[in-house]
Structure formats: C-alpha cells, structure tokens
C-alpha cells in the first residue's frame, strides 16, 4: 500500500487552531435501513447521516458536496450541477455517467427508475433537512439496488423553524437564490413553499454551463388520532452542459494552465456538445395513521412526469412523454416476543416507468472529412434516427422482524422480493458507427423483453456494550438486474443481450460509539459478487458483460472528537481491496486483477470552530492510487488533500458565509481510465471556487 503524503501546512495549522462534532451523526434518526425511525447508533449496518447544519456549513452545491467525504463513497461531477456519478463500495462503477445499482430516495419516493437509472434533476439542494447513506445490500427500502440507498429528506411542511431567504454569488459567474416559507393555514393545516434558482458559467471549461429553477408547494394536515397527510407538488427546469473527458494532450494542457478546451484535440471526441436539459413535474402524497394501538399504516403514492433533451456521443435523445407512477403500502406492527418489545414491518410496492415515443436524432451540424464525422458545431437535431416505446414494471413485497432475544441484544430478520418486467420496442432507422465515425443503417424494428426475479435477504444482530456503544454483525444480500440502457446498448452494437442479474452477498461487522465528546464508527466488510455486470470500454463505445466472480474487502472508519465546547476535529478513512476472482472477456483473462478506479485508500479530515456568532470550518480529502483499466497495466496516483474552507458570522437572524473550495487551487484528475485500445480519458477536478452567501432566518 502506498505511503500517505504529508499534509499541507495550511491543513495542519487549521487542525491545531480550530476544529466540531463528527459530520456523520449517530444520534440522528434514520429510516433508510429498516423503514422505521431508528437512531443510526442502533442500526446494525453502516449508515451515515448528515444533518442540515453540516450541509449549510459546506454550502453544498450538489449531492457530491454532501457525501464525498464519507468512507467507501466515491462521488464525481463534471461541472457542479446534478451530473453526479455515485459509487458506494464499488456499486455503480459500471455506469459511464449517472447512478446505477444504488437506490436514491427523496422523502421516500424513488428517484431511481425500475431499471435502476437515477436522475438528480429534481433534487433541490436548498430544500434538504438531512441525507442518509446506507452502504451495501440489505435495506428493505432498496428494490433492484444491490449497492445501497441514498435517502434525501426535504424540509418538513410541519417544521416552521427552517424558514429563510438566501442570496449568493461567486466564482465562474455563479449565482444562487432560495426562499423557504411556512404558514399555518388553520388549526390543523400547514403550507410551505420552496423556490430556488442556481446558475454557473463554469468557464474554466468550454461547454460547461449549468442552471436550474425549482419550485415546490407542500401541504400538511393533522387528523384526529395523530394521523397526518403530507402532499407535495413541485416543478423543476434544468439545463446542463456536459464537457467531455480530456485525452492525454488535453489533460497535460490543463495541468499547465488550469484551463481546458473542449475541441477534438483535447477530448479525443468529435461530439463536444453533450448536454442534458430536463423538465420535471412531481407529485407525492403520504398518509400515516393508526389502525389500532399496535398497528400503523403508512401508504404513499407518487407521480413523476419528466422530459429531457440529451445529446450524447453520436446521437441526440429527445424524450418528451415519460411517467413514473408508484405506490408503497407499508404496515408497522408492534408486539411482544421473548418477553421484550418487538416489531414487524411489511408491505407491498408497485412502480412503473412508461416512456412513449422516445426519439433519437442524428446531429444536424457535422463536419465530415474522408467520410468520417470529425466535429459537430451545434446540438441541433438532424435526421430522425429511431423511435422507441418502453415500459418497466417493478412490483415487490418486503417483510422485516425486529426482536430482542435477550437483554442488550437486538436482531433484524428481513427479506425483500421484486419482480422486474422490461418491455422495449422500437424502430431504428439509423445508428452511429463508432468505428467508422459515421451514421449507418439501423437494424429496423426490434423488440426486447426481459423478466427478473430479485431477492434481498438480511439477518443482523446488535449488541449493547454500554448505553452509547454497540457491536453489530450482519449478513445481507441482493440481486441487481441489468438496466434497459445496458441491454439496448449491447443489442445495438452486436453484443449479448441475455445478461444475468448479478448477486451480491455482504458480510459486515462493526462498532459504533456515540458519546458527547467522541463519536466513532468502524466497519469491516466483505462482499462476494456473482455475475457482476461490468462495463467494457472498446474505444469510444462501452458494452456490458457478466464477470464470473468478484470479491470486495474493506475497512471504514469515521471519527469525531469534541476538543472543547466550541472546537471539534475528526476524519474518515477507508481501505479497499476489490478483485475479480473470475473474469474473462473477448479472450482476455482478468481473474485475480484489481477492480479499476477503486483506490487502495481514501481519507478525509475536518475541523470546526463555533463560538458566539463566529464559525469556521476546514476539510481535506485524499484519494489513493488505483488501476485505470481491468488489465491492471497502469496505475494513477490519485490526489492528496484537496482542501475546502468556510468562515461565517451570525448576527441574530443574519448569516454571512464565505466558502472556498479547492483552497490551494490543486490541479488533479477526479477520474482516469484507459480503454482496450490504450486511449486515456481524464475527468479534471474543478479549480479554486469562491462562494459568498447571505442568509436571513425568517
């Protein structure tokens, strides 16, 4: 294992001079693991909870800013918008962009489609009360998601203490504004509104602008007998330009100048106008009532109508008529077992993803030389390339029994079953030929149907060493079906479409301690995967295969120590050893090799200071070396101590806050990969970014 480099002087001085409680809170309530409100301390598996206070101190611009320092979590973004690429304990690595294998929830509503694709479009970063990350399989919240759960909880309509107005500006011509206001609309009703606007030119790269406008209205009603009904209607419109990865020459220029170009010479791709412009209308209603003294019923229903304009390499996607409709009917029963309090959680879920007349187009404005497309000059649509209809239906049931067989012991036994039905049909008139760099005749009419039965069992035990200390052990599993896009991609370019669902089994033991001065969590885990679906880069294309067996071993540590009432320090660390035990593809044998892009170690440190109206915070992040291809021919050294800083002053209802990300303006790559032809791709890290915000508590 490589030695860790020395820390920059600024970090060392900051730790000595200032420092607050651990960013991951063990006293926070989480429902991610069990669908019941339970303190993170009492969950017998790794779960990290970040409260709104930490999110505010970080001045988080996206989900990555919130979770990037969690051990075992990798979060990559190209432009600070909602283009998060998220990996938890290696799950999600196969995705060339976006999020796969991980269930993302907002107020209990899946943002992850039935086929496992996730959109962060309608996450309003200014309307978050907490974020929970559950690592690995085993949560009964997770349907068709073997990597874990990321749950985003918005500000409750019943909470009138979070009203505010915020205005901000900063580097890269960035601007942001937000408003949250709650009213009592009668004795038993509350209404709240949330309005947010964010934009940034991100002009350290070409074709890298981002803007989003979001609005939501929530209504909450109290009934007799403590029953509640919460309803939300929201709308968002976002425009995101996605700069391509840099080739070796482009990355060398970035290291030299701190700026990058987006032309073919620096990206290696003729298609430099990739983007994702989206609109989303979202409705969610959830009810909570007691059917008896021991039985609660918590039904939820949601509808999500979305559209996007999504130019990518070779093709422009234009999907305007898409719906996600679903329900979760949950029951929570309290009873006695073995002479102690016990509970059962059970229910059924149904979720459908319907996409009508999804269209793909050729690029209209292309530059052709010697019969090859060498450049595109706009993202305007050209000739219609294909039309597709698809429906994905995911229906499931879950059950979990929680009981105490003896004093200080608590056990969870649970299982989830889901059935996924995919039905895809369309007409492909043209497709982009990556090898020939031109449009060629498509395959005509096609139909793809697939069905998967997915099981996710869990057994865990939690032992109370002391009032504030726990030991736990858990064995859990889950199956992961291939996504619609993976099957379609393989079909379009002549690879096998009969991909199997992968199976993950996780073994984890750990320790948690939550005292006033010291908070710590430590976990050791091993994940055995069979038929893992991995992405294989073949030049500019990616296709998917089932690797035979993969084994992931790791250790994670999270520590926070309150030195003084106003001073705290802490940090996180992760050590990982992920290997293919059996993996052969196209005649190459990768058995025994390390999984690419998984660092040997990650760590972060932070320090907080808070006294009277003064606040300060500093954090540093390091990402260890990793192999950049499945063949393990070369390593990238990672990066060391990218540093973020915050200073703030509060005067009654007024808060003035300055955040500086990448304080020392380090030039580094967030991700490096190499394809089977030996070509390199670099995702450069963002340069120094300065943001100033004024916040007024209403």
Give a verbal description of the structure.
With 698 residues, the protein is mainly beta. Helix content is 6%, strand content 59%. Strand 16 (295-311) and strand 17 (316-337) form a beta hairpin. The N and C termini lie far apart (52 Å). The model is unreliable at 1-20 (pLDDT under 50).
Give keywords.
mainly beta, disordered N terminus, 698 residues
Offer a quick outline of the entry.
With about 700 residues, this protein is mostly beta strands. Helices cover about 5% and strands about 60% of the residues. The chain has a 22-stranded antiparallel β-barrel. A 5-stranded mixed β-sheet has the order 3-8-9-6-7.
Radius of gyration: 25 Å
Low-confidence segments, ≥5 residues, pLDDT <50?
1-20
What's the helix count? 6
- Counted beta strands: 39
Q: Helix- and strand-based class?
A: mainly beta
Estimate the helix proportion, in percent: under 10%
* Principal-axes shape call: globular
N-C termini distance: 52 Å
Q: What is the topology?
A:
Layout: H1 9-17, E1 29-30, E2 38-39, E3 47-51, H2 52-58, H3 63-67, E4 73-76, E5 85-88, E6 103-106, E7 109-110, E8 130-135, E9 148-153, E10 164-170, E11 174-184, E12 189-200, E13 210-222, E14 228-241, H4 248-257, H5 264-267, E15 275-290, E16 295-311, E17 316-337, E18 340-363, E19 366-369, E20 372-376, E21 381-403, E22 409-433, E23 438-466, E24 469-480, H6 484-492, E25 502-514, E26 518-538, E27 541-564, E28 567-582, E29 584-585, E30 588-589, E31 601-611, E32 614-623, E33 626-627, E34 635-636, E35 639-651, E36 654-661, E37 669-674, E38 680-684, E39 689-697
Parallel strand pairs: 6-9
Antiparallel strand pairs: 1-2, 3-8, 4-5, 6-7, 8-9, 10-11, 10-39, 11-12, 12-13, 13-14, 14-15, 15-16, 16-17, 17-18, 18-21, 19-20, 21-22, 22-23, 23-24, 24-25, 25-26, 26-27, 27-28, 28-31, 29-30, 31-32, 32-35, 33-34, 35-36, 36-39, 37-38
